[in-house]
Amino acid sequence: MKALIGKITLWRAVSTIILAVGAYAAYLRFFEGWVVSTNLTDAQPWGLWVGFGTLCGVGLSAGGFCIAAAVYLLGMERYRPLLRTSILLSFLGYCSVCVGMLYELGLPWRIWHPIIYWNKHSVLFDVSLCVMCYTTVLALEFSPSLVEKAIPWKGLRRWYLKWQHRILIGLVMAGVLLSSMHQSYLGGLFLIAKGKVHPLWYSPYLTTLFYLSAIPAGMALLVMVLYLCVRSLQAKIEYSLLQDLSRIMMILLGVYAVFRALDLVRNGATHYAFMMNKEAGYFWLEIVLFLAAPLALLSWRKVRDTPLYLYWTCATVVMGFMANRLNVSITALDAMSGAQYVPKWPEIALTMAVLTAGVIAFRLAVLYLDIVPRYEEPKEFRWLASDGAVAEA
């Protein structure tokens, strides 16, 4: 009994509570229905589950195809130490999206229908098919990490790894194509809602805006995860790799900022940003978190060279990205419909439960699978320098 009590920590207790409350929320969703579990209406049919669970979940998982393309297609072997971490992060992100779709759909038992019933005129069908296919690709890309530990028969393990290696380049190319397609298609979902989306967020180029914003956000989340792996899971990672990612992020955020500004001017929507209403407030919150603050901080060398400063800068990027997706899916629709949607507690509880389950799965994978190089014995929080020496945190 004492040994069991000794294993109980604050975070384990909090995680257990979140999962338990989420399980009850799932019961309400599937057995009591939408009215009890959500505040969704005909005027606001997409809420927190779509805005956060799907739009943010897919976008923040973009780091996987970026690193895979850099290593396998462009030959940037320098980033290979980040490869399995980025693929695992993307795989868990897409798994959470697939789980989220089960409670987002009005008839979840029909989630398999896009596999058989094809509607080539539907953007939502394109998104569903791409997400299913890319999740399969990520599972195959991640499988060597699991096979190396889970299959005890050496011959079978060697055969599978050899077979997976033969199709790997094809998998990566398919992954880059599929991920690029549905990152864009998610924005295309709102193109058919012209007149129902606030002008600050509606654009005929939403597909491009969604794609341009997802890549730096995915990289920012990857940097955050790698920082936490070094700090809490004894990972050995060269800090200069994170510095490289921060420079790439700065360039990509600059490109997105220019495109976003030109798009607002072209659509004649700039004056909406200076109105005294909540939509303008949410717009500027998004701009400050996702563009202004990160661009200013990342241009400062001290921020890029200091792990803690870089971590919080990337956290700002992730928060700004989430603000953008929630603005597009909730704020922009609320403003035009007058729905005044506020998530009900089961929506929040289910979202937090899926997120918590993903974090637990990631931690277990890093601890028990060969995901990232780790110290054999516990060490203080240290980074590897480019010459292999131990650098100060």
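Above is the first protein from milestone M3; the second protein from the same milestone is given next.
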Amino acid sequence: MDKIILFPARHHIQKAAILLLLLTICDAVFTDVGIRHHFISEANPLMRFVYDSNIASFYAIKLSLPFLLLILLRKIEPKPVFHFLIGAALFLYLFVFVQHLFWITIVLNVSN
């Protein structure tokens, strides 16, 4: 049985990791803005605690994992499981991104 590889070349998986980082940055910023203006609340109880304790820590935790992934991908040869996991993370963050766009659209429509 052939392995399913979502990102066949090293540069493709690195581009996917960069996209994941960009989506993570958007998630962190949109979440911060939404919470500050009382449009949304943080759904993850652990991240809610971190946000309430220290916003800089919230950003540090959110952004550290994708940065670590990029560093890791430069140092090792990605195994097929990495391809799957990055693909799954991209799918989830795209879903979160769409959710953010949804509430932003609602807020903009209500304010007009």
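Note on the second protein: Helices lie at 10-36, 45-53, 55-75, 80-111.
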